[in-house]
Every structure is written in structure tokens, then in C-alpha cells.
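Minutes, project check-in
Item: structure for the 307-residue chain
Input as provided by the requester:
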Amino acid sequence: MDFHHLKYFVEVADQKSFSKAARNLHISQSAISRTIKALEDELGVVLFMRNAKSVELTDGGTIFLTHAKRVVFMFEHLKTDFENEFRLEQGSIRIGIPPITDAPIFAQLLGEFKKVYPQIDLELYEQGSKKVEISVQEGLIDIGIICTKPNPKEFESFYLTSDPLSVIVPKTSPLAKEPEIRLDMLSEESFVLHKDDFNLHDEIIKACKHTGFQPHIVFETSQRDLMLQTVSADLAIALLPSRLCPEVGENTEVGSKVVVRPLVPEIIHTLYVIWKKGHYLSHASRLWLDFVNSKLPLPGLQLEAHK
């Protein structure tokens, strides 16, 4: 029995699945099955009840899980303490970022971090907020940026920034003459939204329903440029975070065909940084979190008091 045996066992118990555990640990399912079988043979106890859809802990497995988690926790924190003691500023960080974050600001942030810590590799994954949450929970990425308040039972987090949504409409629309647009004025409009793996998709639909109408969605996409082109073609209206709207300039082909207006009442788009609660976080990842915290408030972004 060694540390990896215990870590594999804990992962299978947490995921209730050999295949999910194998994927999270980046090993084959057959390898993890052999490891668990060897562990059961060594202990002389069946740890899991196996069926076609999932695995469940036996009574003996439940008792063993308590001790195994303690050992895994102690070992991982021993590694953390060692890194802290010797300041091992190297490694890699997997970060999930939604496409609707402000690309120039975050590119600058990443560049500044690399100047300070050139030995740390940054692996970026562009995903909708819902996929970011799942990826963090399953251990596929270390840190995520999401667009909704995280579940405190599952994630550690800190508030990053807030920004109201604006409405983008075709210049040919009567709404283009309005200085600001109420949400109820959009009840007869067609919408282009981000796909449903974006939390912003759900927030907009929820706000429309609360106002008294179901939005007519003609198109969903993960690409902001395609969303703007859909508006410029007079096919729909769009709602985007205000900080992204200055990019819709008059000197662009799309910008010459659309206008941006404030939305009232405001729908606030909020960003949080998250990482898995109770999960080992590498020294490199903690350096990144400390670095981002030290840069708050981010330039060019509206920062509210954290609630």
C-alpha cells in the first residue's frame, strides 16, 4: 500500500465511478481497477460494491475512506509545506476562462505574472462558466473564472469584478433612438444569446421571465463576434457586459451597423475566481491567486464592494 493506492481509492469513492476517477487522475480505467483490487486483496476487505452504472462504498470501505482521506490530506500538505519552505516557484497552472471576460485586461494580467514567475507555465482553457465549474470540481483545471456566485460548499473563491449589461441593437431598429432601454421593451425582439453552458445565458432568461416575458431566442453561440454580426444583420438584439461594448466602434464594419444602449434596470454581470474546496492547491496556483488579489481592482473594470 502506498500513497497512490490511497489517492486512487479516495478519487473513486468521491466520483462513485472508476471511469471518472481514471479521467481525473489521467490514468487508464484498467490501471485504477487493478490498483483498487490489489488494495482490497491486501486489506482482505471488499471496499466497493460494483454495478453497471456506479460503485458504492461498503461498510468497510466507508471506514477505510475516513482514514485514507486523512493520510492523503497530510501527504499533500506535507508537499505544500515543503514547497513553501524552499520557495519552489515553478510548475504549471490550468486556468479556465469564459470567452466573455475582457481579453486585453486578462492578457495583460497573465503577461505580468509570467514576468514575475517565468518558470511557471500557464495553461488556459476557454470554456463557459458552467463547464469551468465542472472542470474545477473534477480536477481537470486548477483555477476558474466564472460569471455567477459560486457554491461555498464546493468552492473557495474571491470576488473579482462586476459590470452591468448593455443592449446592442441594429441601427435600423426603433430602439436605436432610445437613450436607454428597459428590459420590457425587448419583449417583442429576437435575441441572440451565449450558449446554455454560459451562466449569462440563464441570467438573461431569468431576468426576462421576471419582467413578464419569455425571450424569443433565434440563435445561441459561444463566439462574441458571431453574436455581433447577427445583430448587425438585423436578425436579433444582444446583451453583453458593458466593458466589452467599447470594442463595437464606429470604425468597424459591425460597429457602423449597431448601437449600444444602457439596460434598465441593470443586470449585473459578476466575475469570481474559484478553486476546489478542500482540494490540494499547488504552490504555483497559490502564487497566481495571491498575484491576482494584489492587482485588484483591475484597471478598466468596474469594481463594487464585495458582498
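Outcome recorded: The chain has three domains: 3-86, 91-161+270-295, 162-267.
No further action items on this chain.
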